[in-house]
Amino acid sequence: MAADRTDIQFMRRAIELARLCPPSPTAFSVGAVIVADGVVISTGYSRETDVKVHAEESALDKLDADDPRLTGATIYSTLEPCSQRATATRLPCSDRILRAGIPRVVIAWREPATFVTDCVGVEQLRQHGVEVVELAELAEEAMSMNRHLDLGPPRI
Q1: pLDDT at site 37
Q2: Angle at Cα 34 formed by Cα 31 and Cα 40, nearest 5°?
């Protein structure tokens, strides 16, 4: 299923959340929204609860791991879900999305090589049958709160 106006609406909500992130010189500001049956069931943003928490992690932590709505949900994240973490005690967001059984992920931009040389979150999700939609038309807006970082060239 391609992106539609609803996807743009929920991604704009995720972008609003990303603007709430405490700025960091060592991490991106990201927002995430989880939607089931057209209703927001959880939200999160980077550094919402601690300095290491990612947006998707924060949103997923607010739900029971076995919440039946997750198997029909879409997660909107302003940035590609991470495929590796600096801390071994935290599961990468792409793995958390797979564990939750979320079948659809919508992102605004892919992670540049600023902190991780080769993020493969999109590829990992797609390899496991998750539909990943990229809203390139919202990439600039989603990147705007991260302009203080070296974002490098866009990844496609």
Answers
A1: 96
A2: 105
